[in-house]
Task: inverse folding
């Protein structure tokens, strides 16, 4: 029995290579979008186990990645201190599973500090109605200690619009008054993003989105400096991190089920988002290409060739182009001599390689259509596979 030749071994290796994943499919990356459409190279979303909603009788369960600040137990009181320097233990109390303001004791703040977040807070104004306007069930929620989301019993209690419950205080009224009656629990779900400054210039505004009892109250509202009492605020840099503060405004407002989830960085901070600056996009595309080439180095034959071609869609590289061109030529050589059933068995693989070459040519990932592209198209035509599909 004769020994297999090098060419025979190469042919067997190329033809046995697995088909690549769903690359060469959606529109390719461009100057401000580092990923292709439907890109398998994008990271999969992290798994988060959802919690469940609160009822009036019982607080809900936070999602699995939430950082709990108050869960109704005295143990979580350690997360809070009086808003004083030097810090002191809070004088607020835990009563019947609620964190209750002691009027006159001052603001409280968290020991922890963070920046952009999804924040969940539930609060309840006293069941016994006393006072009116800003004097009734008044408190406030201050993400990073910088901007107030108003807490106020506005159930049949009008006040100035930009001081209403769920207003960005002094900046923007809520879109709706969705409060329950006093003495019952109100649910605030807040998305907070701080303003981003670079070289003393604001490159992205801060904003708040707020839902009250499931009703949208603030829709991506710009912070305009954070707001305040009587005076118009001006945009200014926020610190990178800050505590959550709760306001003592002289009313025994209660809180429960307080938690947050940190949010990923935005584009201006170097976050991995769909639309980036040209500079950030170029850097990201180069990193994606490097990862694909590292994976290609672990493969052989057709699988390696497809991964190398895929990497060229993200960033050019002369050595990668030369190697992928050689491998595509080897692939053509390996299938040109086939006919009948052996050739038919390779139809899907041949079409995939042709599709990859066509995609790369259209995306200008290769200088011009590689000669193998025309040869494979001719082979498909000669085999009658195009006619079969009609």
Result:
């Amino acid at each position: 029995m004769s020994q297999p030749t090098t060419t025979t071994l190469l042919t067997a290796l190329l033809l046995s290579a697995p088909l690549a994943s769903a690359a060469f499919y959606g529109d390719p990356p461009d100057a401000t979008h580092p990923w292709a459409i439907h890109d398998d190279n994008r990271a999969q979303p992290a798994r988060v186990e959802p919690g469940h909603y609160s009822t009036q009788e019982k607080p809900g369960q936070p999602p699995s990645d939430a950082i709990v600040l108050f869960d109704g137990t005295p143990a979580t009181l350690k997360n809070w201190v009086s808003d004083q320097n030097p810090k002191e233990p809070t004088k607020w109390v835990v009563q019947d599973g609620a964190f209750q303001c002691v009027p006159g004791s001052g603001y409280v703040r968290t020991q922890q500090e963070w920046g952009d977040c999804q924040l969940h807070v539930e609060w309840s104004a006293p069941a016994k109605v006393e006072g009116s306007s800003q004097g009734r069930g008044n408190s406030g929620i201050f993400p990073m200690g910088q901007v107030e989301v108003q807490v106020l019993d506005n159930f049949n209690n009008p006040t100035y619009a930009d001081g209403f419950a769920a207003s960005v205080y002094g900046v923007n009224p809520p879109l709706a008054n969705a409060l329950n009656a006093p003495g019952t629990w109100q649910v605030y779900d807040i998305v907070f993003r701080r303003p981003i400054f670079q070289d003393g210039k604001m490159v992205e505004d801060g904003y708040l989105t707020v839902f009250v009892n499931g009703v949208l109250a603030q829709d991506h509202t710009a912070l305009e400096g954070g707001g305040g009492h009587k005076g118009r605020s001006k945009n200014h840099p926020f610190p990178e991190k800050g505590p959550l503060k709760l306001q003592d405004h002289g009313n025994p407002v209660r809180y429960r089920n307080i938690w947050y989830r940190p949010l990923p960085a935005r584009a201006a901070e170097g976050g991995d988002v769909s639309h980036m600056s040209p500079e950030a996009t170029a850097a990201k595309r180069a990193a994606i290409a490097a990862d694909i080439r590292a994976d290609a180095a672990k493969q052989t034959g057709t699988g390696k060739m497809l991964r190398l071609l895929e990497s060229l869609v993200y960033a050019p590289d002369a050595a990668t182009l030369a190697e992928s061109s050689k491998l595509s030529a080897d692939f053509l050589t390996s299938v040109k001599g086939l006919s009948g059933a052996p050739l038919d068995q390779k139809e899907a693989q041949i079409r995939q390689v042709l599709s990859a070459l066509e995609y790369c040519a259209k995306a200008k990932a290769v200088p011009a259509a590689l000669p193998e592209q025309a040869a494979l198209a001719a082979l498909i035509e000669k085999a009658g596979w195009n006619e079969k599909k009609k």
User: Anything to note?
Assistant: The two ends are 45 Å apart (CA to CA). Confidence is low (pLDDT under 50) at residues 1-20.
